[in-house]
Design goal:
alpha/beta; Protein-Tyrosine Phosphatase, Chain A; Rossmann fold; six-stranded parallel beta sheet; 12 helices; 13 strands; 42% helix; globular; Peripla_BP_I; carbohydrate binding; Bact_Solute-Bind_Prot2; signal
């Protein structure tokens, strides 16, 4: 039996030293967690990238108020901040609001992702440098087209990779007006349908499918328009659901409800692919394999295919916009909703690698447009 231990009280200086040690450990752990999640080599922030210094990635858990607070804090705590990058649709508007509030329009460049109307108006007004946009209308249209054919057991021409990439676009002041007009046509129900996977389909049999997003956002309104156009064309009834709070639990409840109401196929944008793998696999079984991912992939699941943007390459394009907006270099901060989501990991990795001037890996470069591929890159599977 050991004698009782004597507890020696810490003096004032020992307590201060202990607190500093704990604080240092917490900061270090947080940085390592963010860097690992970034999915671009596990960097530790800040990252020295030639003329640029990448300060970090700030997340907000899809809370718009918190997104704005993150932006305000970044401005207040980093006097040499030159560029702020928002990688989810609501991030650029929140960043712009913070920049305007700090009276730093023009001094801090705002670079965005997606086509929020505030972002586009900011580009038009010269307050946002540019944005890289996806084509959510095509996501919705293609999801209905391909799921309908899968339910009917019809043949599709899909790459061996099971990745169906939808091209992204870069929007600057010189083409923002044309792009806004395109969005107006989509909102008016006059969106242009993309080329079909097959010349003809037998659509005599009506199908019942579902399209699950990851939150409520204007971005998904364009996807819903694509769904509605495709419903008529492919004789499908497709339920669109936007989780009001953007939670995994909301997605889970919707998927489980669809499993028991006669739904024959599901297109899902998983908010946390790794932790939702079991749910996705159960859906694959329940829907007889008719389960696909869109916008955000779950590559370790049994989903049939992914429809959406090549998020790493889109992130590289965002990095190019940073270089254009701030050619002299400087401090850069990245903002996004959830690093658990694969698209956030891939986009942030693309931005970081572009600013570091890293070569694009050949297995990824094959998905670039033909005129942008390195000469040694083999042709890609194209759809």
């Amino acid at each position: 039996m050991h004698p009782p231990r004597r507890i020696v009280p810490l003096n004032r200086f020992s307590r201060i030293a202990l607190l500093l040690l704990v604080a240092t450990c917490l900061v270090s752990c947080r940085a390592k967690t963010e860097n690992t999640a970034a999915g671009s080599g596990g960097y530790e922030f800040p990252i020295e990238a030639g003329k640029y210094r990448i300060l970090g990635i700030r997340t907000d858990n899809t809370d718009h108020a918190r997104a704005k607070q993150n932006a305000e804090s970044a401005i207040a705590n980093n006097p040499n901040l030159k560029a702020m990058v928002g990688l989810w649709a609501y991030n650029p508007p929140m960043i712009l609001s913070a920049v305007e509030g700090a009276d730093k329009v023009g001094e801090i460049q705002v670079i965005g992702f997606d086509e929020d109307e505030v972002t586009l108006k900011g580009i038009e007004d010269g307050k946002v440098y540019g944005t890289v946009v996806q084509q959510p209308f095509v996501f919705g249209y293609k999801a209905v087209e391909l799921l309908s054919a899968m339910v009917r057991g019809q043949e599709l021409d899909i790459p061996e990779s099971n990745l169906v990439f939808v091209p992204y676009k870069t929007i600057r002041k010189d083409n923002v007006g044309e792009f806004q007009a395109e969005l107006e046509r989509i909102n008016a129900g006059k969106g242009t349908a993309p080329p079909k996977n097959q010349p003809e389909y037998d659509t005599s049999e009506k199908v019942k499918i579902a399209f699950l997003t990851n939150t409520v956002d204007p971005f998904w309104n364009y996807a819903a328009e694509g769904v509605h156009v495709a419903e008529k064309e492919f004789n499908a009834e497709c339920k669109v659901y936007d989780p009001p709070n953007g939670t995994q639990e909301e997605q889970k409840r919707f998927v489980e409800r669809k499993m028991g109401d006669g739904c024959q196929g599901l297109a899902m944008s998983p908010s946390s692919p790794e932790s939702q793998t079991d749910l996705i696999n159960k859906a694959v079984e329940a829907f007889n394999g008719n389960m696909i991912c869109h916008d955000s992939d779950a590559p370790n699941s049994k989903r049939k295919m992914y429809i959406g943007t090549h998020n790493y390459l889109a992130g590289r394009e965002v990095g190019k916009l940073v270089k254009e907006a701030v050619p002299e270099g400087g401090d850069v901060m990245i903002f996004v909703g959830l690093m658990e989501q694969l698209n956030a990991q891939e986009r942030s990795a693309g931005v970081i690698d572009e600013l570091m001037d890293k070569p694009i890996p050949p297995e990824i470069a094959q998905y670039l447009p033909k005129d942008q591929r390195p000469t040694e890159t083999k042709p890609a599977e194209e759809k």
